[in-house]
């Protein structure tokens, strides 16, 4: 597993500082899980991301994977990822084939420790969006995802820092940075090992 080596390639400088200071915070982090899911569409392979709704919170209006926080009835983190994927975009949990868990990512601004999973869906999904949480789907063609020219650095103002330079992916016109970019970096490095 490329793990944290992959993550660090896409880690903003300000986040490195937070990570180095926040070792103890991670021990008390809330738990969440997300699903990086690939599926076929029009004879190509796509990766699903989504644009979150605007709301008063640190991840408002950001691109991310389907997923969310652990709830009491969840047996494990995989169940959390599948349940949340179903709730947010309508993909049935039993139809998701889990390929492997990825490396956890700690998110200092919201104090979440997130477990990503790599999954497959064998047919083109019929999406049903949660109108309270999902603004739009971002269906990324695998070829575009692997294209090195879609990596960049961009200055952003975030919920916790002003005018910071962040490494990012440019996918379908969206700037994907932070924890999602770190997870995407690991997915990309894993795919490069097998393609």
Describe the protein's topology.
Blueprint: H1 3-9, H2 13-21, H3 23-27, E1 30-41, E2 44-52, E3 63-64, E4 67-69, H4 77-89, E5 97-101, E6 105-107, E7 112-120, E8 134-141, H5 142-146, E9 151-156, E10 164-171, E11 174-176, H6 178-194
Parallel strand pairs: 1-7
Antiparallel strand pairs: 1-2, 1-4, 2-3, 2-8, 5-7, 6-7, 9-10, 10-11
Helix pairs in contact: 1-6
Give descriptors for this structure.
about 200 residues; 6 helices; single chain; alpha+beta; three-stranded antiparallel sheet; 11 strands; Nucleoside Triphosphate Pyrophosphohydrolase; eight-stranded mixed sheet
Question: In words, what does this structure look like?
Answer:
By secondary structure, this protein is an alpha+beta fold. 29% of the residues lie in helices and 35% in strands. It has helices spanning 3-9, 13-21, 23-27, 77-89, 142-146, 178-194, and strands spanning 30-41, 44-52, 63-64, 67-69, 97-101, 105-107, 112-120, 134-141, 151-156, 164-171, 174-176. Strand 1 and strand 2 (44-52) form a beta hairpin. The longest helix is centred in the last third of the chain and has 17 residues, at 178-194. The mean pLDDT is 90.
Class of secondary structure makeup:
alpha+beta
CATH superfamily caption: Nucleoside Triphosphate Pyrophosphohydrolase
Detail the poorly predicted runs.
none
Helical segment count = 6
The total of beta strands comes to: 11
Helix % is 25-40%
Order of helices and strands: HHHEEEEHEEEEHEEEH
User: Under the CATH scheme, which class?
Assistant: Alpha Beta
Largest sheet, in brief, is: 8 strands, mixed
The CATH architecture category equals Alpha-Beta Complex
Mean of residue pLDDT? Answer: 90
Oligomer: single chain
How would you sum up the global shape?
A: globular
Termini, distance in Å? 15 Å
Number of domains: 1
Strand fraction equals: 25-35%
State Rg.
16 Å
> Might you state the CATH topology name?
Nucleoside Triphosphate Pyrophosphohydrolase
């Amino acid at each position: 597993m490329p793990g944290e080596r992959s993550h660090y390639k896409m880690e903003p400088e300000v986040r490195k500082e937070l990570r180095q200071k926040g070792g103890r915070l991670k021990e008390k982090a809330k738990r969440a899980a997300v699903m990086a899911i690939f599926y076929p569409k029009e004879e190509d392979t796509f990766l699903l991301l989504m644009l979150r709704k605007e709301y008063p919170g640190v991840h408002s209006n950001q691109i991310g994977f389907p997923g969310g926080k652990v709830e009491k009835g969840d047996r494990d983190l995989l169940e959390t990822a599948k349940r949340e994927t179903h709730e947010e975009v309508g993909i049935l949990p039993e139809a998701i084939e889990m390929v492997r868990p990825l490396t956890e990512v700690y998110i200092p601004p919201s104090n979440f420790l997130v477990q990503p999973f790599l999954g497959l869906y064998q047919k083109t999904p019929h999406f049903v969006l949660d109108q309270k949480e999902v603004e739009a789907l971002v269906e990324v063609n695998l070829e575009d995802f692997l294209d090195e020219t879609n990596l960049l650095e961009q200055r952003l103002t975030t919920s916790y820092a002003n005018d910071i330079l962040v490494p990012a992916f440019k996918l379908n016109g969206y700037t994907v940075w932070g924890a999602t970019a770190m997870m995407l970096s690991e997915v990309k490095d894993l795919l490069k090992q097998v393609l």
